[in-house]
Design goal:
It is built from 7 helices and 17 strands. By secondary structure, the chain is α+β, with helices and mostly antiparallel strands. Strands 1, 3, 4, 6, 11, 12, 13 and 16 form an 8-stranded antiparallel beta sheet that branches. It comes from Mugilogobius chulae (yellowstripe goby).
Length: 392
Amino acid sequence: MRLSVADLWSNRSLAQLWGRDFLHHNGRCQQQPGRAFFCFYIMWFWGFQSRYTMYFRLCSVCFLLFLHMGHGFSDDDHEMEEFLKREFSLSKPYQGVGSLGSSHWELMGDAMVTTEQVRLTPDMQSRQGAVWSRVPCHLKDWEMQVHFKIHGQGKKNLNGDGLAVWYTKERMQKGPVFGNMDNFTGLGVFVDTYPNEEKHLEAQKKRYTPRTERIFPLVLAMVGNGTISYDHERDGRPTELGACNAMVRNLKHDTFLFIRYVSRRLTVMIDIDGQHEWRDCLDLPGVRLPRGFYFGASALTGDLTDNHDIISMKLYQITVLSRKNQDEDEEEITVPSVDNIELLRLKDKEEGWSSVAIFFTVLFSMVGCVFLIVMGLVLYGHWNETRRKRFY
């Protein structure tokens, strides 16, 4: 039944019933504050014996309807549902993890299961370990929440090396990239705890510029297509898609990593402050990841050490409600890639040179100002001298 504003105005009880019905049947009212506010306002507005004039009330209703429509259009594209997928999730009590055929997860290297965590590496030198899903993931949109812990006896910058969360074509392959193979195919999100590049620059008696300095521990992401190598000496700087600092070592509270891939958009967030609030790390559109890859986590120690623990990895299937009918039109992705990656790299290079560019811009601006002032004084003196000659 369609109701106009005039109908609602002429019958306040009808408006109240309509508001209640709208609130009851429109589940989005409960999920979206803007819609809920609108629903409750409709019921309250006509039930309250207001002393305002009819004109003001009608204008108020029209304004609210406008806001409601705008809110609906802006939120519909982002309206999502999520469902926990237990076959791709790892959590306590880790029943059967590591045993043949009795679990969806498999251990590799020095990884071991305890009652409290899956320890990828102990706080010992030259160890590497991993845990990998046995089942390939064919979900189009997903969200991974990782509960992890990094702790050890080493002091600041005397610990290493970090852990990684993977969504890759390959699995169970040892290597130098946080315990996984180099030239991988897929997505890697790294929690890097040791600044290799900084130590390398110190050995060459060089320093970071203010714009290129990075604070460790660091969370960064990389997409590989099987031919791109991770630059260990530079902590993955040439291939990073984005990064943020994350002080995650030796904390008494829980630490979490959030990875979402929806509509070819990669979002990484962290919760490391004990406030149960996600903090943005990177958000990048145009990321293309194929289906059928494997989830995993790995860690590596060298001369410096740490305990790298995974408490849980929970995968959620994401359903974008407003896009259900558009899935058939999208082409299948076969090779991982990032749109406009060259422009992203160029932007990083431009930012690296920006301090030099600013210096020369300021320098030439000052020289130009001095030149204009001198020319102005010369022209003024010439004009003043010419003026005096006219009186003789």
